[in-house]
Amino acid sequence: MAAITHFPVPRLRVGTRFAGAICGTEDHRNWSGAPFQTCSRPIGLPCPYALLPEPPVKQSLTLAIADRGARGDAVSALAVPPIGGQVMPELAPPLDHLADAKAALLWPGALAALGPGWVLLRLDATQPGGDLNAVATVLTLTGALLDKLVILSSTGDTVADAAIAAVAARLAASAPMPRSTSKAFNPGRPARRTRQSLPSRPACRAISPGPTAIAARRRSIPRATAIAPIRRSGRACALRQRWWCMPPMMLRLWKRLGHCRITTLRPRLCPTGIRCLSGPWAVARG
Amino acid sequence: MNDPEAHMGMAARHPRPFAFGAATGPFGLIATAQPYPRVLWDALPDGTLCPLYHVARWISQAAGADLLQADAKDGVAQVVWRKARRRLALIANLTPLARVMSAVDFAGSEANLMDCASLMDFAQAAGAQAPPVHPLPKTSDAYTVVFMAETGARP
Q1: CB neighbour burial string for A225-247, b if at least 16 within 10 angstroms, e if fewer
Q2: Confidence (pLDDT) at A52
Q3: B80 vs A40, A151, B19, B58, B72, CA distance in Å?
Q4: A110 contacts B125? CB cut-off 8 A
Q5: CB A61 within 8 Å of CB A15
Q6: A226: chain B residues, CB-CB within 8 Å
Q7: Could you report the predicted ipTM of this complex, rounded to two decimals?
Q8: Whether the Cβ atoms of residue A274 and residue A238 lie closer than 8 Å to each other
């Protein structure tokens, strides 16, 4: 991440430039929250890493704010949406490492009383071995559902598929892994969640720290992202409904107008699997 | 969609699971020894519960409840919800200063007040809590959190 510009309110432009230690932005809409998170250690870089006293790490943020709006009071930094049918969310503590499950089980009473609805497992499939039974015990103890983020090192789709299948087999073989889950979302309707028993293909969310964005593969991503109606523009192709192909320039324009959510610059990862475009086109998901 | 208002609306209508932190570890809800000094917590045994543990537990118990009120004024945030025909509320002084307590006060309610004075009561075990407080004090100390539950069911 070198720079980002956003518009907190209409006609207020905030540009942020990052310098120094590398920053990265993660899309958390499919992972525990609704935001984009920008932080100073991209997830694709090795972790843990040594942070030495010398030389000092230098970072800087430069903000450029342009207000072209009419005079008026500034909006509150914490804007609470109007109350209207919302429900309280479920707790979803993360397990960033398999060893975290064993550590948590040292305090079973406190863990059970916490009553999480979900457990967010970050499974690094690039590391061999690892005991999933402790994760299964956490689920049994708490009654929580399991949400999974799988990190792959694959550079090709076939290898990535095999790696995901191996992860699914590991999850299925971990007894007792009581429940898996798949999430679905329809535009304009409340989020719907179904529960199913393993073994079945788990709703793996795959990301790759390598150069190939395997994450964009349609069948690896559950339809859990909220989709709002979008303005139909761009150039239609053989894609289905909410997927559109367009040249990068138009894509950038869309992003500026706030019409795009998920983009990839790899047309061969077109979610329908139809190679309907050639050249450096982009796929946008509204 | 990058439009912040639409984004906020999306999050409000379709709440996602939330996470304050892992169960254990460097920022865990359950305190355990770490390879760096921790003021106060190093003097307490492993398994001591952080104040945030109880906040997470209270909100976790509210999962699926109907949200009735949510606001933040003068550094005091409050959330009110209804579950099992009871109103419940969480009120937090987010500032390092004393603040006037919220006007939320259910008739016939019990409140648990977590502040510096009662911190150790809450740190012992998941079920351990400070004695209920009623009525609520007029002001709250720095970073005080109050969990309030209506004692009687309402239609």
Answers
A1: bbbbebeeebeebebeeebbbbe
A2: 83
A3: 36, 39, 19, 12, 12
A4: yes
A5: no
A6: 10, 13-14
A7: 0.87
A8: yes
